[in-house]
Amino acid sequence: MTKRNCFIGQSGGPTSAINASLAGVISRCIETNEFDHVYGMLNGIKGLLEHKYIDLKEKFNAKESLENLKNTPAMYLGSCRYKLPTFDEDPQTYNALFKTLDDLHITDFYYIGGNDSMDTVAKLSAYAKTIDSPIRFIGIPKTIDNDLMGTDHTPGFGSAAKYVAASMLEIAYDSSIYKLNAVTIIEIMGRNAGWLTAASALARSANCDAPDLIYLPEVAFEKDKFLNDIREVFKTKRSVIIAVSEGIKDKNGEFLDSDSKYAKRDAFGHILHSGTGKVLESMVYQEFKCKVRSIELNVLQRCAMHIASKVDLDESFMIGESAVDASINGETGVMMTFNRVSNDPYQVICEPKDVSYIANLEQKIPVAWINEKHNHITKELYDYLLPLIQGEVSIQYQNGIPQYINIDHLKTDENTAD
Amino acid sequence: MTKRNCFIGQSGGPTSAINASLAGVISRCIETNEFDHVYGMLNGIKGLLEHKYIDLKEKFNAKESLENLKNTPAMYLGSCRYKLPTFDEDPQTYNALFKTLDDLHITDFYYIGGNDSMDTVAKLSAYAKTIDSPIRFIGIPKTIDNDLMGTDHTPGFGSAAKYVAASMLEIAYDSSIYKLNAVTIIEIMGRNAGWLTAASALARSANCDAPDLIYLPEVAFEKDKFLNDIREVFKTKRSVIIAVSEGIKDKNGEFLDSDSKYAKRDAFGHILHSGTGKVLESMVYQEFKCKVRSIELNVLQRCAMHIASKVDLDESFMIGESAVDASINGETGVMMTFNRVSNDPYQVICEPKDVSYIANLEQKIPVAWINEKHNHITKELYDYLLPLIQGEVSIQYQNGIPQYINIDHLKTDENTAD
Q1: Residue B357 Rama label (left phi>0; alpha psi -120 to 50; beta)
Q2: CB spacing of B167 vs A300 below 8 angstroms
Q3: Within an 8 Å CB–CB cutoff, is residue B271 touching chain A?
Q4: pLDDT surpassing 60 at residue B270
């Protein structure tokens, strides 16, 4: 039987679970004994173009532990924000990439990332077919935004959702201590899809009724309605807790912070929002003249491994394993997806789907899962979300802080290929 | 033997550990069987003036669990921001307070809070002496700022420090993924004392060299030096991670964000800072034109019970117990303090100290514990901090989120005394 080599890359923004998928791929590659070398490209496809990679089979057969990798946040292989041009735009890049892959006897290529990374997988697999390259390209999803099409949910979302729900709960306790009217606005990541903001509803229990109000980018934001909603809550409570997506828009589709000084764009031209909470804070203060605080949940939403979801990490590992099985079975040009075959008991299976139908699309919350008043979520959405945040991870602590895997290889310019 | 009743109150800002001290007081009150009634004033001394209180002995003998109370963040009894006037300013308030205490046959009064709460304890105990009241007043410290005099450290600080260190570590991983020059600025709570910002240094380990730079309010901030410090770090690394206290000041003692729109004052007239990180972000961008991100760690610094320090919670419980022992021994006008009798092995004992020497003073970081370049901390400070964040708490989770104690009594206007 012919031995083969493979490449794994990570791309896009970090999550708590993307290293679990990497660990799943490495683990299955080693288990199946199909591969001589399991290479990890450093800083995604951009690193590959610069011949920057490491031998993962070597590294994880030796001293490093896959379990520690699974429980480490952010991206062990580093990332890039690089938009792969089309072949017509830049044939040289394709020639260079495939030469590198051929030189290293690569037969399988696994790319873990979000929407833009799936675009890369789609382009490379389509090009491979045009040149009769046997290399198989498999996409493995990840994003805290949960906005990829074709999959029940995305790896990384459950851990971010658990962080958001737990933070909402703790902030609700923090906000309850003074005997005065107060509004607390919690701004949550999510550009066009409100899944993560919706997850704040998971804070609710017999002992916590926060969030009182939830505003999502899927429905138009109306200032007057918003202020009325708060007025209604004040009739029965002193402390109003509001979850708001950074990406809420008015009925003309304008972001609330569009012309604020915070507006920035990423390498793909997407606006990076920040400041929606501050805009609302000022709106509420002008109307109610009460204590108002806006809190922007920061990057810990995507990297707080210490409160990751066990379900999410286990599934992220599993989908990495399934990618190896898929390519060994001859699949290419696919993204691995979750199919929820049962909600109670919760059960998912991994299935490959044609990546060209997935890339560059966004999965938003169905409006039927938002309540009629457009200020909270329905039970259907709650039930969908609940299984994804179950279970706690047992992180190893040393000297009082989590002990994550060493990532010194990301800090230098060394690489094995030079 | 004459039975007696006591009052417990909480005041000031919330911490993850202030309920542990409350649990310690209740636990010892029940254990010693000295008290018929253990009352909890709702919303501090202000609630007491309005006759708002609950019977804690009843509540915690029945269904609620002291362990669950110990592991719940924020303030079970609620808080107030109320500056008790002096007797000369407002004799009526004193008369009303002591009448309420006498009517309820109160012999012991425990007040858990920060600097301003200790001022209340000092005033009430001094007044009691002038009227020959036998009521004993005991202060129990708490503050995430660690800035109270007379105690090795304060309950609540260790948990906030552990949150800051773990967050610093996770943000450092998050910031390492791109191959480009970047500066990440993490703004940490601390008005005049930099203890909590210094605790970010606990993120350092064999696998993490963040934070690269630390700026504290105890030494003057100089813009040119700051930019030079970053330039130096860039010589060896791409990703520069900076911890900065919200309260840093220039050589004239001016806060960096003094005249920003964020400047607010609390009920005691203290400026509430927010925006220092944004000011530095702009400074760095103008100089280096690189990726810069500022992150303001939010109220989770004081309420993230899910990553609290076990040492802190256990000590906070213990100092609550010791307060009961002290008043039973006849002490009054004291604050309970920690005396670190040994650092290795770490051991503290609780001792009462005259509260009048403690109230209204601030314990800052000794300059000898800041490095010569004024951009990091010394090993002595690291060694002082390290024991305080040790150990993890085992929070009960239900439906994927922490299960904290019910605080519905804070949400209504009901009270037992009406």
Answers
A1: alpha
A2: yes
A3: no
A4: no
Q: How many other CB atoms are there within 10 angstroms of residue B82's CB atom?
A: 18
B161-303 — its CATH code? 3.40.50.460
Interface of B with A in 360-379 (CB under 8 A): none
Give the integer Cα–Cα distance in Å for B355 and B115: 10
Cα distance between residue B233 and residue B239, in whole Å: 9
CA closest to B184 among chain A residues: A299
| B208 interfaces chain A, CB cutoff of 8 Å | yes
Looking at A108, A119, A145, A257, which residue is catalytic?
A145
User: Considering only the top CATH level, what class is B4-155+305-361+391-410?
Assistant: alpha beta
The pLDDT of residue A2 is: 63
pLDDT tens per residue across span A289-319: 999 999 999 999 999 999 999 999 999 999 9
Q: Where are the domains of chain B?
A: 4-155+305-361+391-410, 161-303
What was the pLDDT predicted at A279?
A: 87
Q: Do domains B4-155+305-361+391-410 and B161-303 have the same CATH topology?
A: yes
Residue B145 has pLDDT above 70, yes or no: yes
Query: Which residues on A lie below 8 Å from B305 (Cβ)?
Result: 170
Contacts of A237 (CB under 8 A, 6+ apart): A209, A212, B411
On whether the pTM is more than 0.90, the answer is: yes
B145 is catalytic: yes
- Exposure of B147 by Cβ count < 10 A (0-12 exposed, 13-18 middle, 19+ buried)? buried
Does the pLDDT at position A273 exceed 60? no
Q: What is the ipTM of this complex?
A: 0.94
Contact assignment for B178 to A43 by CB distance below 8 Å: yes
Is residue A43 less than 8 Å (CB to CB) from chain B?
A: yes
- Token pair in block for residue A407: 């990532």
Which fold, A158-303?
Rossmann fold (3.40.50)
Render A181-224 in DSSP notation, one character per residue: -EEEEEEE--SS--HHHHGGGGG-BTTB---SEEE-TTS---HH
Give the model confidence (pLDDT) of A102-123 as tens digits.
999 999 999 999 989 999 999 9
Query: Residues B328, B32: contact at Cβ < 8 Å?
Result: yes
Under the banding of pLDDT at 50, 70 and 90, the label for residue A415 is: very low
A313–chain B nearest CA distance, Å: 14
Interface test with B, best of A177, A290, A388 (most B CBs within 10 A): A177
E strands, B181-324, are 182-188, 213-215, 239-245, 264-265, 271-272, 291-296
pLDDT at B408: 92
Tens of pLDDT, residues B297-317: 999 999 999 999 999 999 999
